[in-house]
Design a protein that fits this description.
The complex is a heterodimer.
Chain A (H helix, E strand, L loop, with lengths): L1 H19 L23 E2 L3 E9 L17 E9 L14 E9 L11 E14 L7 E11 L4 E11 L9 E6 L5 E2 L13 E11 L3
Chain B lengths: L1 H15 L17 E12 L3 E8 L5 E12 L3 E13 L6 E13 L4 E13 L2 E3 L4 E3 L1 E3 L2 E3 L6 E5 L3 E11 L2 E15 L2 E17 L1
Antiparallel strand pairs in B: 1-2, 1-14, 3-4, 4-5, 5-6, 6-7, 6-8, 6-9, 9-10, 11-12, 12-13, 13-14
Classes of the chains: A mainly beta, B mainly beta.
Chain lengths: ~210, ~210
């Protein structure tokens, strides 16, 4: 885990340097472990908010275009997080004090486990922070906790990159997820993709940012 | 006199109309209520009334997901890997409701209608409602492949009734989507009358 943390911090350095002069807010610089620098979701602040909704992503590639229906190359989800910061940070620097829920189904046949689509279900949401360096019009948030892979009963920590970029949610908002203890992620690291990498663009549904909770 | 009235009217419009341009109500106005429901399969006939799996968002705000590895209502419908999810949050202008139902390997009326994947996805915010993301994969009706049917596509089923594909019904402040809705009919001496319904993949969302 220390190695992962180091890699993430290393990847975040260029973006943090670019932003440091213009942003005095606390940054804990936890970038996704994508192998390339992330240009968004690097600078965060601990504040109260709520993000709600759900929808569909067609990953890969995670753009606003839907894949052919017969391919089953899509994911569906519902997720909400309520940030109530308690002034503490965890060992990775995330803002503690949050609650919420995540339901995730990956419909890709190649990700079936024990004969069923990969199904992730949150056990606990423990941290959440507002990203202050995204292009998400309404709000971008980074949050996570622990979940269970329902197909196997295994547990893993997870993180979510969550973006409300206006209405409608399809074609505008973004969502991405990564498991920290298993090699599974649905992230779109291309900075050219709207709205803010590494979140993937919704092809249905909506993310709704609530500035207060 | 008419010119004076016109002037008053324009001044009134200039003062009032801009207040209507904001989609989100100011705090203190009436609370908007978000609702969301979804289900995988519903059968309603004289002998069978069953709905599974189904989910309804809590009134106080939240999300519910239910699922079933196999759905089988003998002779009427079967499906695999059914998930129903409903999320709704009432929060004035930030209210939102999203619901979805997804199923695989759907078989209705002993192969009369089959689909390899069904997804109903309903979304409502203060800005409006949509069915974006809803889809039918490898759909066959009476042996004929139907690709990406337009909203409210009706296909007759001789001797059975008819089916509406990608059924989209505007509701008060929201939308209901039924991806496959079979209307069973019975024909007798007195004509044709309803005999039941089969719905596969239904999602409803609203903000009022």
């Amino acid at each position: 885990m220390n190695t992962l943390r180091s890699l993430a911090a290393l990847a975040a350095i260029p973006a943090v340097v670019l932003l440091a002069s213009s942003c005095a807010q606390r940054d804990n610089a936890v970038a996704p472990n994508l192998g390339t620098p992330s240009f968004h979701f690097n600078v965060f602040t601990c504040t109260g908010f709520k993000m709600t909704g759900g929808g569909r992503i067609d990953f890969p590639p995670g753009t606003a275009d839907k894949n052919p229906p017969a391919s089953h190359e899509y994911e569906t989800f519902g997720a909400h997080v309520i940030a109530e910061p308690n002034g503490q940070t965890d060992e990775l620097g995330h803002c503690e004090g949050a609650k919420g829920s995540l339901e995730w189904v990956d419909h890709r046949p190649e990700y079936e486990l024990n004969g069923r689509p990969l199904n992730l279900h949150s056990i606990d949401v423990t941290w959440a922070e507002l990203a202050t360096d995204t292009d998400c019009e309404e709000g971008g948030v980074h949050w996570g906790g622990t979940l269970v892979i329902k197909n196997t009963g295994q547990q893993s920590r997870f993180e979510v990159f969550d973006c409300d970029n206006g209405e409608p949610g399809a074609g505008h908002d973004g969502f991405g997820i990564r498991l920290l203890d298993y090699p599974y992620e649905v992230l779109c690291p291309d900075p050219a993709l709207p709205p803010a990498e590494p979140s993937c663009t919704l092809t249905g549904g909506n993310r709704q940012f609530h500035p207060t909770h | 006199m008419k010119i004076q009235n016109l002037g008053r009217g324009l001044r009134f419009a200039a003062m009032v109309l801009p207040l209507t341009w904001f989609a989100r109500p100011a705090f203190g106005q009436a609370q908007r209520t978000a609702t969301a429901q979804a289900f995988g399969v519903s059968v309603s006939t004289a002998l069978v009334n069953q709905k599974t799996p189904s989910a309804t968002a809590p009134a106080e705000g939240g999300m519910v997901q239910t699922d079933a590895a196999d759905v089988s209502i003998t002779g009427l419908v079967s499906a695999r890997d059914a998930y129903a999810l409903a999320s709704g949050w009432s929060d004035d202008g930030y209210s939102d409701a999203v619901s979805s139902a997804s199923l695989g390997q759907v078989n209705i009326l002993n192969g009369l209608i089959t689909a390899n994947g069904v997804l109903a996805l309903a979304t409502t915010t203060a800005a409006g409602s949509d069915a974006d993301g809803s889809t039918l994969a490898d759909l066959y009706v009476n042996g004929v492949a139907i690709s990406a049917p337009a909203a409210n596509t009706r296909v007759n089923l001789p001797g059975v009734g008819y089916v509406v594909l990608n059924e989209q019904i505007a509701t008060g402040g929201g939308i209901t989507i039924n991806m496959i809705h079979v209307y069973l009919q019975q024909t007798g001496l007195l004509g044709t009358k309803p005999a039941g319904e089969i719905v596969v993949g239904s999602a409803t969302s609203s903000v009022n």
